Amino acid sequence: xxxxxxxxxxxxxxxxxxxxxxxxxxxxxxxxxxxxxxxxxxxxxxxxxxxxxxxxxxxxxxxxxxxxxxxxxxxxxxxxxxxxxxxxxxxxxxxxxxxxxxxxxxxxxxxxxxxxxxxxxxxxxxxxxxxxxxxxxxxxxxxxxxxxxxxxxxxxxxxxxxxxxxxxxxxxxxxxxxxxxxxxxxxxxxxxxxxxxxxxxxxxxxxxxxxxxxxxxxxxxxxxxxxxxxxxxxxxxxxxxxxxxxxxxxxxxxxxxxxxxxxxxxxxxxxxxxxxxxxxxxxxxxxxxxxxxxxxx
Amino acid sequence: xxxxxxxxxxxxxxxxxxxxxxxxxxxxxxxxxxxxxxxxxxxxxxxxxxxxxxxxxxxxxxxxxxxxxxxxxxxxxxxxxxxxxxxxxxxxxxxxxxxxxxxxxxxxxxxxxxxxxxxxxxxxxxxxxxxxxxxxxxxxxxxxxxxxxxxxxxxxxxxxxxxxxxxxxxxxxxxxxxxxxxxxxxxxxxxxxxxxxxxxxxxxxxxxxxxxxxxxxxxxxxxxxxxxxxxxxxxxxxxxxxxxxxxxxxxxxxxxxxxxxxxxxxxxxxxxxxxxxxxxxxxxxxxxxxxxxxxxxxxxxxxxxxxxxxxxxxxxxxxxx
Amino acid sequence: xxxxxxxxxxxxxxxxxxxxxxxxxxxxxxxxxxxxxxxxxxxxxxxxxxxxxxxxxxxxxxxxxxxxxxxxxxxxxxxxxxxxxxxxxxxxxxxxxxxxxxxxxxxxxxxxxxxxxxxxxxxxxxxxxxxxxxxxxxxxxxxxxxxxxxxxxxxxxxxxxxxxxxxxxxxxxxxxxxxxxxxxxxxxxxxxxxxxxxxxxxxxxxxxxxxxxxxxxxxxxxxxxxxxxxxxxxxxxxxxxxxxxxxxxxxxxxxxxxxxxxxxxxxxxxxxxxxxxxxxxxxxxxxxxxxxxxxxxxxxxxxxxxxxxxxxxxxxxxxxxxxxxxxxxxxxxxxxxxxxxxxxxxxxxxxxxxxxxxxxxxxxxxxxxxxxxxxxxxxxxxxxxxxxxxxxxxxxxxxxxxxxxxxxxxxxxxxxxx
Lengths: 297, 321, 418
Fold this sequence. Notes:
Chain A is built from twelve helices and no strands.
């Protein structure tokens, strides 16, 4: 699939030039560094706070990058009409869209890698470093150790867990990126941004949607019980049920964080991984479907 | 087999229009269709240079976009090289240069061509050779390492042309290829198009620069308000007869030429010479006789045939009425 | 040219005028803010953890951490107020609902509501939740046991918690000994005794020299408490039957200790000394069981003579005080030694009082500080309670020292001991 690769490379080059990317990256790095400061407020559980905030920062800012960079991708192509020369080439529209997707995904993952590097540096600096050596020594050691940890992560037990959690986060972001591409293939950047963020929140709160549905059902039963009538299932219940099935279950990807902190080994049910992959594929198919019928101006 | 064949190709856009009236505020809702293209039927043969001409908004760009698969027609059919629109094998043999193209301006010249080469499925060696050759052909070899952001309009057009020829296509679509170019640029484009025909390729381009189209087209089609007004080889469209005569005389007095002013289409004096344009041959004979009898000199006598522009304007005015 | 300069100046003046006016209005506002008193609540009341969880959109652990930091600050800010335990428990509930494995939150909460405010039910809730969510961690039941025994002195609860703690394979060793200690406190003497003795013997077998001192102390206390308890029970029975308290001799003569199971101190002492000498080679698990069986006897015709302090052979033994009543259980059965010491101290004070009287021609001092010169002695009478829980006071009219534990300590005689 050389064509998809060509488009992906091009998209990556384009996305890297987006200034918003660097703003978000700088915020993420500030937050990761700040977690070290924040952990000074507590005496015990210092490393827990640093790790928690690091994971959350990488995840959240990864989503931010996917949203901000991704929503304008397809739209810009259409607005600037750079798409004309591409569509006239022997390349299917689906290949173009997939190329955009993989280019964006690569951008997101590369940025996550950068954030992970700084996260590992921060971990080393705050937790493992020898408190007696000078600040410069510790800083240099941390920066170096960060590289080592990043690339030789198989060798170290602690780093392996961290990288595993980050990898799961990457899969979660693959789903969000797919949504960003889906929405940007048919609407303006602002609307796409809102829709993607809403989808992200809804996906994270999937469990709560289910509880909400049960809550409604319980209420309906209670009301019926007082009057001795058959409960009338409210429409909202069906809506919530359907929504809970359709919305991505992003909470499943998040449980590994607790494992990384409290247990020695991080494990994840393979079903979750399969779910992530097929869900992404489904969303991409939907975007291709919509994009194929699209009239360009 | 016709290279390009369309039959009753139509496209319309739907727009809601709100009418308001001052005085008494009235808001009307009206569905208005904009017919961009109506029942376009053309056939283009192999090795032709076909020009699709018309004023702005006539639908030329829409037609090309439909043929390229960028827009979908609302009715009618079209075939390229015998296959329906969108066929991938056909697209491998087509090149396209859009109107006022925007390209990824962060790419360098050669990167840009390399990207499109990859889309055509060319391997690296072929790409590299072809890029060198094309850059030389369009004259951008020095600028190959600069990002497209820094290119002038002419350079943009030329790199776009290079991109359209990347895969050595048999059929090339050019939408307004000469817009924004200076005369040298326009000549270059003309030369390239002619060289393409010599290689046996078919060129379909749209333009509103009629003089250039006149110079290179084999056949033209004229679009006006979405409809095809006329189509055919240039020779057939333009009336073969002479439409006017241009006379340049010298050495006569003003008073000699004045009486013919009303009958002449134009009369002007430039540095002692009189330039006149007459529409009737008898008039010219009279003028020449008169000038010679007064001892003047005939500098030149040039018959002028109808130009495409004249034909064009004639047709437009005819359609308006 | 005049025109551009004029327009520039006009614009500058306009800017200054507009912005200056705005700043002046703002100044008014600032003044108003400063003079208007507003009380800010220092804590943030949170709704139930379910709402917080919904808002957290998956970042549960970070929110739990941030709330944990807040919890520490809230505790520090308001720890003396009455609201504090409720707030702490509420924060605890939310933090542990968001992150159930956050061990430090449980410990901190036990400290905050238990040790500061003695809210036993809350502590029980906390430990129960901890055991539910983190079944094999010792830290929290450990805290609970600490609270139960040393704060509210409920040895039964403490023993329960200690047993929970011991389920964690990483638990430190001394927590295991806590179980016996709490059992002892509840009066389960035999069980505690057996455990202490077997632990001691096992450690001798393993040559853990550094633990011998601890084991001595534990075993000592266990044996003493057991003896005291048996004596107490017999004395109460006697009093119920006859209306007066017995002496130990009377109890023995009445054969009250037949069929009472008590440790054979002599045997135990010999056993331990011999084992230590031989380096524990003769002790195996089977041996230890045999020794345990032989260390207990229930055929005491007379209560074995002291030394119950098996490591101190000259210990004079226990006495049953005839002044004992139900309210002063502290000294019902006590060592005669302690009373001797008290008498000695009191007599010193009397001597000082007499010297004072002599110096002032028979005038009685009105309080301790007037005649007691040595500061430690003064502290003894004024700052501390007496060894049996009562208070010292100076009777200025009769020139006597009175202790609420003993009616007249200087003239009382120590009853017969065995």
